[in-house]
Structures are given as structure tokens and as C-alpha cells.
């Protein structure tokens, strides 16, 4: 990786800064896929009221890109490693923009739904390849920093996209989809600023002098543990995102405005959590400690939320939850990238995206399923809280044990 223009350190000045910014902006297309459309759902349902079962199909149109992304991401990762990064990213970004705009001109709901399915395919490509390029361009320390900033950018853009989608949707539900023209600008900038990295054709890399001299070997069994952790992180993160209105309704606070205010303020603390990770990276905090804090805060908040009696209490506990999520999500992201050799970086990133998006998709389904056993959402959270606390302790205990075993083996030799 030290020959040719393979790391961003080789590019200096303005171009380097714009390349960094562009790679962070690409991840914002993921929340755009759903959030821009969300405020317009009632108007879309009303417009297509003649379509059978439209009350079920409308929310599916909102969430289907995420499910498609979960399904196709491993294949996308494989293709990224086999055929290269830049051309795939640029073409898919153009396609994302064109397919995203399509509902402005469609008056058949099934065509609209189909366009959302196709959008999910290109969303998978854009997110997988742009994340892989961060792994390719940056040294280990900068890589962790910018992968954490990916989550910051996505969380911040979610607030902006929801407000913009609401404003444009208030004029016309079709007008909201004009936002999808923005990626076309990203594609032009990507053609100018990005380059194709030289990829090694092996399953291991040697880390540069900034890190250590050890070899990164692709270990499927170890990676599976990371991917399962990403699935659990996504499930737990989405619980509060979806269940806030139901928690408030259970204590007699049924105002959508209250739920929206709590959700908006909580998102701010997700961002603050991701920024805290930047400090933890500078202090070389081990991943296991990040997982302990992240899962620990979320588990603790679930126990508190299960006993909440007012909207103010829900707000305070939601802030704790969101701050923990802000620490957890970037940590599982760069944990995955840290253990991927360059030749398998696309595949590993694609599989990670798959597990993460399946976690977000199945989160509400799992909660409804568990509610059937516990009797209520509050009881479910009361059960999940201690389980997450136990998992948080397991993460750091496992890491300590692993380090002890590795040290013992080294001493033996």
C-alpha cells in the first residue's frame, strides 16, 4: 500500500480535504433513502387510496430499501473486491439519484414500490464502496477517526433530511423526492476527487509503521463474532427509535409532538456520543471498553425506561440510551474494518452492512414477538436491560481472556 497513490496521505491540500468530506457525505445517502419520504407517508397513502392494502404497502415502501440492502450487501462487497471501487461507486451513485427521483413522475404505486426496491440495491453499493474506500485510503488511526465520523454525519444528516422532507412534503409529496438529485452532484465530484486504490490479491495485509508489524489475516470465525455484535447493536439501537411513541402512550402521553421532540433531542446525543468516540480513539481506548460503555448505557436505560412514569423521565432515559448508541455504533464499524485485509475489505464491509441492516429490520419484529411473552413493552425492556448489561460485561471479559491467551502463547514461544 506504500506504492502509488493508494492512501490519502499521498494527496495534500484542498483536494485531500474535499475527498475526506465527500467520503463522509456518501454515507448520508443511507438515511436519505428513508427519512426524506417519511413525513409524506400520509399524503402518499391518501393519493393511492384506491390501491388494495395501501395502509400496509405504504410503510413497506419506506423501509424496503433497507431490507434490500441487507440482502444484497455481501454480493456487493464481493463485486467490489473483484472489479474495483471507483467506477462501481460513481455509476451506482448516478443510478441512485435517478431511481430516487423516479417517484416524482410515477402514478402507479407498484412502479413506485419497485423503484424503492431498486434504490435499495444502489444504496447498498454506495454505502459499501464508500466505506471500503475509507479503509483503503487511510492509515489505521485516521481510518478509525473517519469511520466514527461517518456515524456522526449520518445522524446529523438524519435531522436535516427529516426537516427538509417535511417542508417539501408539505408543498407536495412528489416534491420531496427532488432531494434525490443531490447524489448526482456527488457522482461528478467523485469522478474528480476519488481514485482506484491498488488492491493486494491476498487474504492478509501488513499494517504500516503507524500501527504494528503484525499481519492482518481474514479470520471468518472471528469476523462472524463482530458481525453478530453489529446485528445486536442495530437491534438495540432501533428499539428506542421506533418504540418511543408506544412508551409514551403507555404512560398516558399520546402527543406525536412530544414523541417527535424526544426523538429529535435524542438524536443530538447520538451525535455527541460519536464525537466522544473521537476522544476515545485519541486515548487508544480498546474496542471492548467502548462496547462495555455502549451496551452498558443502553441496557441501563432499558431498565430505567421500563419504570418511567412521565415524559420527562422518558426524555432523560432516552438521552442515556442515545449517548450509549453514539459510542456503540462507530465502535462496531471500525472494529470490523480493523480486522479486514485489503483484498477482503469490500466483502467484509458488505457482510457487516448486511448484518447491521437485518438487525434494524428485525428489531420491531423481535420486540412485538417478545411482547407476546412478557405482556407489555415495559416488561420486555425490563428483561432486555439485564441481558445487555451481561453482554457488555462479556465483551470486555472475552477481550481480557483473549489477550491473556495470546500473551501466554507469545511467552511460550
Describe the structure.
By secondary structure, the protein is mostly helical. The chain folds into two domains: 8-199, Growth Hormone, Chain: A (Up-down Bundle); 219-339 and 375-412, Growth Hormone, Chain: A (Up-down Bundle), CATH 1.20.1250. The protein is built from 14 helices and two strands. A two-stranded antiparallel ribbon has the order 1-2. Helix 1 (14-26) crosses helix 8 (182-193), helix 7 (140-171) packs across helix 12 and helix 11 (287-305) runs antiparallel to helix 12 (311-338). The two termini are 30 Å apart.
Quick synopsis:
This protein is an all-alpha fold and 413 residues long. The protein is built from 14 helices and two strands; from the N terminus they run H-H-H-H-H-H-H-H-E-E-H-H-H-H-H-H. The protein is globular and about 75 Å long.
